[in-house]
Amino acid sequence: MIDKEKIEKAVELLLEGIGENVNREGLVDTPKRVARMYEEIFGGLSASAKEHLQKTFESPMNDMVIEKDITFYSMCEHHLLPFFGVVHIAYIPDGKVVGLSKLARTVEVFARRPQIQERLTSQIAEAVMDNLHAKGVMVMIEAEHLCMSMRGVKKPGSKTVTFATLGQFEDNAQLRKTFMDAVR
Ligand code: ZN
To answer: What residue spans in the chain does CATH classification 3.30.1130.10 cover?
Structure first.
């Protein structure tokens, strides 16, 4: 559970650490605001994908389902700066499908925590695979990292692309191609 009091203290210390005056008008409520905001953007830590993916529907169709361009915002755990972009998810059902909004909810569960893009990609894939008992899952994430854009190598607009494949997608190039053609 999020400890807002601790976050407030930490933000105050952080501001002092960079040499700011924490009592000036613009900053006096900042620790409280950040604590409230963190409760939301790190809310995934106390959420589980299972609660969104357990409500499934029987379906006789076992063709690939693709949900693309799911917008997400996450926080890089190395720098505590945002990374954000889109997630594309494909799965091959085995008699069970899920409401499409539930895939977006699943993305939020894993995005709203300190993350790295590689782990976010595989956690989404595994959650869909395990909860739907799908025959295969493929996830692709395209994201811009502010820790790349606004500091260090400063490459604004550059995208990091990650993939995760499970089940039938692992050894079937044709399935992967169908997915790639659909999301491009
Ligand atoms: Zn980073």
So the answer is: 50-183
Q: List, for residues 143-166, the tens digit of each pLDDT value.
A: 999 998 888 777 778 899 999 999
Residue 88 bears catalytic tag: no
Among residues 109, 71, 74, 113, the alpha carbon closest in space to that of 89 is found at 71
Give the residue from 154, 79, 156, 68 showing the smallest Cα distance to 104: 68
- Catalytic annotation present for 78: yes
8-34: per-residue pLDDT in tens? 999 999 999 999 999 999 999 999 999
Catalytic residue among 77, 118, 133, 170: 77
Where does the chain hold its CATH 1.10.286.10 domain(s)? 4-41
Whether domain 4-41 has CATH 1.10.286.10: yes
Q: Is-catalytic flag, 133?
A: no
Q: Which CATH architecture has domain 50-183?
A: 2-Layer Sandwich (3.30)
Segment holding 45, helix H or strand E: none
pTM higher than 0.70, yes or no?
yes
Six-digit token pair at 179?
A: 């997915």
User: In the annotation, is 76 catalytic?
Assistant: yes
